[in-house]
UniProtKB/TrEMBL annotation:
Name the record gives this protein: Helix-turn-helix domain-containing protein
Pfam families reported for this sequence: HTH_17
InterPro entries: HTH_17, SinI_DNA-bd
Residue ranges of domain Helix-turn-helix in the record: 42-91
Protein origin, superkingdom: Bacteria
Organism, as annotated: Flavobacterium chungbukense
Length: 109
């Protein structure tokens, strides 16, 4: 690194000022962003019951009947948030207009 002269000071201060502004902006963005847990997608059975609004015993019975996506390690059950949301979406019942559109698309091929 070369030594700076007095004439270099205005340029150096301008550069430093821009960098400090960028750092402040980034810090504000980080501060306003909600923290995500390290394992944001991984849930226990209690957290899963709150998400899908079913009781813990109901979830246990669905796990026994292989009706709900689950991972098991030893005696513990773990659920992925994305899997549970996809499972909920897969049970969606189509409206009459959606069914009508599908039929029309099949016949128009």
């Amino acid at each position: 690194m070369k030594p700076f002269t007095f004439e270099d000071l205005p340029n150096i201060l301008g550069t430093l000022s821009l960098r400090v502004e960028n750092i402040e902006r980034l810090l504000k963005e980080i501060k306003n962003k909600p923290p995500e847990p390290e394992d944001a997608g991984l849930m226990t059975i209690i957290e899963a019951s709150k998400l899908i609004r079913l009781s813990v015993p109901t979830i246990y019975s669905k796990v026994c009947r292989n009706e709900i996506p689950v991972s098991k390690q030893g005696k513990r059950l773990y659920f992925l948030r994305s899997d549970l949301l996809e499972w909920i979406k897969s049970g969606r019942i189509k409206t009459v207009s959606e069914i009508r559109q599908e039929v029309e698309q099949r016949f128009n091929r």
